[in-house]
Automatic annotation (TrEMBL):
InterPro entries noted in UniProt: HDAC_I/II, HDACs, His_deacetylse_dom, His_deacetylse_dom_sf, Ureohydrolase_dom_sf
Subcellular localization(s) per the UniProt record: Nucleus
Biological source species: Calycina marina
Ranges of residues in domain Histone deacetylase: 43-331
Domain of life: Eukaryota
Keywords: Chromatin regulator, Hydrolase, Nucleus, Repressor, Transcription, Transcription regulation
Residue ranges of the region described as Disordered: 419-459, 530-617
A biological-process GO annotation: heterochromatin formation
Gene3D superfamilies membership: Histone deacetylase domain (3.40.800.20)
Protein family membership: Belongs to the histone deacetylase family. HD Type 1 subfamily.
The protein's name: histone deacetylase
EC number(s) stated in the UniProt entry for this protein: 3.5.1.98
């Protein structure tokens, strides 16, 4: 317990880091329609994985320890709190049937390759964003301590551009919602890819700190260098931890925990958003890390241990069975439930053969992250954090002797040294690359299996739009998943990288990074914050509490039933006494109006009475 100074106040209810506080109210958002959407044939992103995860969550009985909601899908208007009207208009109207008449727009908004037009695209985005916004709104109202939306976490989407399988950035929208009531929000991203869309959205503000741990170097999206730390008021409020292939549980923990602890100490966020991309798991179809399910979930447990209001989101993850296992296990972690390793029988049981086991295990792939490398980067990241003390409510002071990264020639040398064998690409399209390595039999349930991927891949488009033979060969060199007689085993094959390829890539990288930094610097703080700031937008306050029949909910073809009941609680207007914060300090705030609840037209969720708790079997 704390110190002996008697302040005359009652002792604070302090949650000590590392000691999970006991009871957390967990709100879980799930829309049974989400699994029905499909990107185009052969596309690695499969919304079906969310249904797989949900099925495990239900069959493990985790639903008994949380409240389950179906969020109102995000509206066109809500999405434009971050995205441009023009972009959202386009997403709302483009369909596979009319897309040919939108050639120009497709190019402009980067829709068509990684981010194809598919049936129900806008509805899919609405569900994803609605869950994250609603989760944030419930956290704001103190209705739960943890909100979960596995359909969210689509971190690559930009203000007016789709990217990396993401169209609408539910994370940015959720954070904007949190900024109404929280002065400082921390975003943590453990997807294997850099959380570029979220970082960019808040690059110039100290109201949001973004922290991304990701593979860096000849890897999508090509951003997320150590020295990218934010600009203007946002300088030092972006944290990037570049990693190499094959990072394992222990190594990851050795950097994740100290960095997050440092952020909690220095920045003292009031709310946290955790993106749990499952492509950082061992054996992911597109990933290159070697985390086990438990190593991945350790991040969730650690973040939970701080006891802050936390929005937990999905993200990438392309080996469906492993994503489902992990997100189910992490849901169990959040509610504090032990889970047996033998999977409960469920309608997707065959996905989990031959072992039918909960665990996703690490492989024997090489860890290219040396202890020295990780320590060096960690120290630099922690040094940078010293400049963030409790901003924006407390003036940050210059710390004598502290190392700044992100400007001087010395800094460049440090970074160059650290990244000497990195040669990132830009505008790499995951899908183009993937197309060359997988079959087109999209609906074959086994097509997320690693055995569809040959060891070597053909040429692909590089940053100049030129075709460079084997440039990307080394991306997947060591995560070829073998499924031979029941054993999952990785076969490492060390990459042979041509010196001229490295030099060319390094030169391109420097060019691209300076371009990116220039673009970012040119964004006026006022503009960026104003356009992400929903100063007069209505707060979210309505979702349907969905008492779910574990067996009934997850049928794909179950007839839709009309739903008219609403959550009876929590619809109270926000009083001026708890006037929401404006995301941008410069923007005048109006007290949020609460939108009248709108009935959701149909659902597959079985409703068993008005706003009742989840029935126990
Ligand atoms: Zn990813």
């Amino acid at each position: 317990m704390a110190s002996g100074v008697n302040s005359g106040y009652a002792p604070l209810d302090v949650t000590v880091a590392g000691k999970p506080s006991n009871k957390k109210r967990v709100a879980y958002f799930y829309d049974s329609d989400v699994g029905n959407y499909a990107y185009v044939a052969g596309h690695p992103m499969k919304p079906h994985r969310i249904r797989l995860a949900h099925s495990l969550i239900m069959h493990y009985g985790i639903y008994k320890k949380m409240e389950i909601y179906r969020a109102k899908p995000a509206t066109h208007h809500e999405m434009t709190q971050f995205h441009t009207d023009e972009y959202i208009d386009f997403l709302a109207k483009v369909t596979p049937d009319n897309m040919d008449s939108f050639q120009k727009e497709q190019g402009k908004f980067n829709v068509g390759d990684d981010c194809p037009v598919f049936d129900g695209l806008f509805e899919f985005c609405s569900i994803s964003a609605g869950g994250s916004m609603e989760g944030a709104a419930r956290l704001n109202r103190g209705k739960c301590e943890i909100a979960v939306n596995w359909a969210g976490g689509l971190h690559h989407a930009k203000k007016a551009e789709a990217s990396g399988f993401c169209y609408v950035n539910d994370i940015v929208l959720g954070i904007i919602e949190l900024l109404r009531f929280n002065q400082r929000v921390l975003y943590i991203d453990i997807d294997v890819h850099h959380g570029d869309g979220v970082e960019e959205a808040f690059y110039t503000t100290d109201r949001v700190m973004t922290a991304s741990f990701h593979k860096y170097g000849e890897y999508f999206p090509g951003t997320g260098e150590l020295r990218d730390i934010g600009v203007g008021s946002g300088k030092h409020y972006a944290v990037n931890f570049p990693l190499r292939d094959g990072i394992d549980d222990e190594s990851y923990k050795s950097i994740f925990e100290p960095v997050i602890q440092g952020i909690m100490d220095f920045y003292q966020p009031e709310a946290i958003v955790l993106q749990c991309g499952g492509d950082s798991l061992s054996g992911d179809r597109l990933g290159c890390f070697n985390l086990s399910m438990r190593g991945h979930a350790n991040c969730v447990q650690f973040v939970k241990s701080f006891g802050k209001p936390t929005l937990v989101l999905g993200g990438g993850g392309y080996t469906m069975r492993n994503v489902a296992r992990t997100w189910a296990f992490e849901t169990g972690t959040l509610v504090g439930q032990e889970m047996e390793s033998a999977l409960p029988y469920n309608e997707y049981y065959e996905y989990y053969g031959p072992d039918y086991d909960l665990d996703v295990r690490a492989s024997n792939m090489e860890n290219a992250n040396s202890r020295e490398y990780l320590e060096k980067i960690k120290i630099q990241v922690l040094e940078n954090l010293r400049h963030t003390a409790h901003a924006p409510s407390v003036q940050s002071t210059v710390i004598p002797g502290a190392t700044f990264l992100g400007g001087t020639e010395e800094d460049d040398d440090v970074v160059a040294d650290l990244d000497e064998d990195e040669n990132p690409d830009v505008r790499m399209t995951e899908h183009r690359q993937d197309k060359q390595i997988t079959r087109d039999d999209e609906f074959d349930e086994s097509d997320d299996e690693g055995d569809a991927r040959p060891k070597l891949h053909g040429s692909r488009i590089n940053w100049n739009g030129q075709r460079r033979v084997n440039f990307m060969d080394f991306q997947f060199h060591d995560d070829v998943e073998m499924e031979i007689s029941g054993s999952r085993e990785s076969v490492p094959s060390p990459p042979l990288i041509e010196v001229d390829v490295i030099l060319a890539a390094a030169a391109a990288n420097a060019e691209v990074n300076s371009e990116v930094m220039d673009q970012k610097s040119q964004i006026l703080v006022a503009e960026a914050t104003a356009e992400t700031g929903p100063s007069n937008a209505p707060s979210r306050s309505h979702s349907i509490k969905a008492p779910i029949d574990p067996d009934g909910d997850i049928e794909m073809d179950e007839p839709a039933a009309a739903v008219s009941d609403q959550e009876s609680e929590a619809e109270e207007p926000i009083s001026t006494a708890q006037a929401p914060l404006s995301p941008a300090a410069s923007i005048p705030t109006t007290t949020d109006a609460v939108v009248a609840p709108t009935p959701i037209p149909e659902t597959n969720i079985k409703m068993e009475g008005e706003s009742t708790k989840i029935p126990l079997p």
